[in-house]
Amino acid sequence: MKNNDWKSRLGVMYSTNPEFKYETNEEQEEETLPKGEQKLYIALDKRNRGGKMVTLVTGFRGSSEDLEALGKLLKVKCGVGGSAKEGEIIIQGDFRQKVAEILVKEGYHKPIMK
Prior knowledge:
- The chain has about 110 residues and is an alpha+beta fold.
- Helices cover about 20% and strands about 20% of the residues.
- A five-stranded mixed sheet has the order 3-4-2-1-5, with helices on one face.
- Strand 1 and strand 2 form a beta hairpin.
């Protein structure tokens, strides 16, 4: 599908060159590493969260779709809410042990506890 969003091209001048290609500054996502090569970290965090504890899973290297899928799997298996964005997965509550067990069962290296 062609991107014809005119707002993204507001600062572009008209070109008479028929081979002109407008380039955006979008970053390409890196390839997702295999599960066995992922180096994940699990930590308990309650900073800037109103005193509530969350389990953070960081260190994921790969596409945002794969991060979302792993986040959804962890949320479903723990039975709680959370989110997955910007390379980290947030699980509501203290589920460090359970998350570590789930990741090992799924084929990831044993995560490092912080």
